[in-house]
Amino acid sequence: MAVKKSGNSEGLTYKGHPLRRVDNLIYYGSMADKYIIMMQVLENRQEQDIKLASKVSIQLQLTEPENSRSRIVKKSEKDSLYAAMDIASIWLDRALAGK
């Protein structure tokens, strides 16, 4: 996975967008943009001594919705964090490009 630590104090980025984790929630994108991705790890599995995500919920959300129900634009579930990050980067790039 192409995650890199930026030179400033902003933290991790993935394909040019900020990446933040709070417990089982992963936020991808900037709150300053119109859209953000929220991923939630729903299930984990143990692989030797590493805990891996085995079910991840993905949501493309508006950052400034008129009401809370209209916040979710797209949603899906994937069977790994890698697959979730892959679709999340595509959704976010397309949404921010206006496609």
Q: What is shown here, in short?
A:
With 99 residues, this protein is an alpha+beta fold. Helices cover 17% and strands 49% of the residues.
Give a description of the structure:
This protein is globular. The protein is of the alpha+beta class. The protein is built from one helix and seven strands, in the order βββββββα. It starts with a strand and ends with a helix. It has a seven-stranded antiparallel beta sheet, with helices on one face. 17% of the residues lie in helices and 49% in strands. The relative contact order is 0.18.
**What value does the average pLDDT take?**
86
The radius of gyration computed from the alpha-carbon positions, rounded to a whole number of angstroms, is 14 Å
What structural category arises from helix and sheet content? Answer: alpha+beta
**Main beta-sheet strand count, sense and barrel state:** 7 strands, antiparallel
What's the count of strands? 7
How far apart lie the N and C ends? 25 Å
Tally of helical runs: 1
Strand content: over 45%
